[in-house]
């Protein structure tokens, strides 16, 4: 195993440590070792993380590093690192920086020549994707959608024709609104998965077309509780006839009755503005099925 050497051995290392998203057994052995051995743990919420540390019998001092103080207090952690202390960065759950604080501290540390070492582990979006059964070779993570309806729909419009699997984080009190907007923008037939309470007692992974998923969540208030990830299958370009308007098909059919297929497709493309190759394919399909 290659461990990146500190850029300057007199300087400490900043470890970015993932912690469980529910089930405490998911903590990694290396995470525990690092949390035990560093001089200081920078935590999103010290009271919350105190419970985690107590559970594992770790007594390393904690200091707050959250959204509101991260930029200003970064200097404090940086001077500890520069004086040779190792520091671990954790968030309330999962991987720091993933819809969680830490970005500014990591940037500042790297800019100052401090080695930043990831200690990987739980992350809700990866856990959800790994079990959702949607294409996982290419995906995009959109984080939390805007809370306001207009901004949320505008954001969704931007990714409506995204071919990769889409992953969203959502708060339980907005899950229904979120599914309603996903259905309105992406269409009710698009396949989606709700991954709720992962690694916890009421873990649920439900995969349905968006219209059915929205109805299922609306009908059961239990599904509107807890933490959730929403995954939506990427957009698939309609092929063949489905991609061509009824008017373009009418023009193509009229021309096919009068001239050879290749000429009909070329002329129909000029008249309708639809791609010649697409009309050629459609013409072939129509002749085959005639
Ligand atoms: N840093 C975390 C990670 O690595 O996944 C994410 C933190 S973000 C503030 C919290 C959001 O992550 C929740 O609102 C939910 O969308 C998702 N999340 C966290 N834990 C989850 C769980 N156990 N099951 C489902 N979603 C979860």
From TrEMBL:
Residues that span the membrane, as ranges: none
Catalytic activity: cytidine(1402) in 16S rRNA + S-adenosyl-L-methionine = 2'-O-methylcytidine(1402) in 16S rRNA + S-adenosyl-L-homocysteine + H(+)
MF GO annotations: rRNA (cytosine-2'-O-)-methyltransferase activity
Domain (Tetrapyrrole methylase) ranges: 13-213
Keywords for the protein's UniProt record, in alphabetical order: Cytoplasm, Methyltransferase, rRNA processing, S-adenosyl-L-methionine, Transferase
Keyword Methyltransferase: yes
GO CC terms of this entry: cytoplasm
Location(s), subcellular: Cytoplasm
Group of enzyme by EC: transferase
Keyword Disulfide bond appears in the UniProt entry: no
Domain of life of the organism encoding this protein: Bacteria
Pfam families from the UniProt entry: RsmI_C, TP_methylase
Signal peptide segment: none
SUPFAM superfamilies: Tetrapyrrole methylase
Gene3D superfamilies hit by this protein: Cobalt-precorrin-4 Transmethylase, Domain 1, Methyltransferase, Cobalt-precorrin-4 Transmethylase, Domain 2
Residues annotated as domain RsmI HTH: 243-286
EC number(s) on file: 2.1.1.198
Entry's family note: Belongs to the methyltransferase superfamily. RsmI family.
HAMAP family per the UniProt record, alphabetical: 16SrRNA_methyltr_I
Biological function: Catalyzes the 2'-O-methylation of the ribose of cytidine 1402 (C1402) in 16S rRNA.
PANTHER family: RIBOSOMAL RNA SMALL SUBUNIT METHYLTRANSFERASE I
Name of this protein: Ribosomal RNA small subunit methyltransferase I
Gene name per UniProt: rsmI
């Amino acid at each position: 195993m290659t461990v990146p050497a500190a850029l300057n051995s007199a300087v400490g290392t900043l470890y970015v440590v993932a912690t469980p998203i529910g089930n405490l057994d998911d903590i990694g052995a290396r995470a525990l070792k690092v949390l035990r051995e560093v001089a200081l743990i920078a935590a999103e919420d010290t009271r919350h993380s105190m419970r985690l540390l107590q559970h594992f019998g770790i007594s390393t001092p904690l200091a707050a590093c959250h959204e509101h103080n991260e930029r200003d207090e970064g200097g404090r952690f940086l001077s500890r690192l520069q004086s040779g202390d190792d520091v671990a960065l954790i968030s309330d759950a999962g991987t720091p920086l993933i819809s969680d604080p830490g970005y500014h501290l990591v940037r500042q540390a790297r800019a100052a020549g401090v080695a930043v070492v990831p200690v990987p582990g739980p992350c809700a979006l990866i856990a959800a994707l790994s079990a959702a059964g949607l294409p996982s070779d290419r995906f995009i993570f959109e984080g939390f959608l805007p809370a306001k309806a207009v901004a949320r729909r505008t954001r969704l419009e931007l990714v409506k024709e995204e071919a990769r699997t889409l992953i969203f984080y959502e708060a339980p009190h907005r899950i229904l609104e979120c599914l309603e907007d996903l259905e309105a923008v992406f269409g009710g037939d698009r396949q989606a998965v709700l991954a709720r309470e992962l690694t916890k007692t009421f873990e649920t992974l439900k995969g349905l077309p968006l219209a059915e998923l929205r109805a299922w969540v609306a009908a059961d208030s239990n599904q509107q509780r807890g933490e959730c990830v929403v995954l939506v299958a990427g957009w698939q370009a309609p092929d063949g006839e489905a991609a061509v308007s009824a008017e373009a098909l009418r023009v193509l059919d009229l021309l096919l009755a009068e001239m050879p297929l290749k000429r009909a497709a070329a002329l129909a493309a000029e008249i309708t503005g639809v791609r010649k190759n697409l009309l050629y394919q459609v013409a072939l399909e129509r002749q085959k099925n005639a």
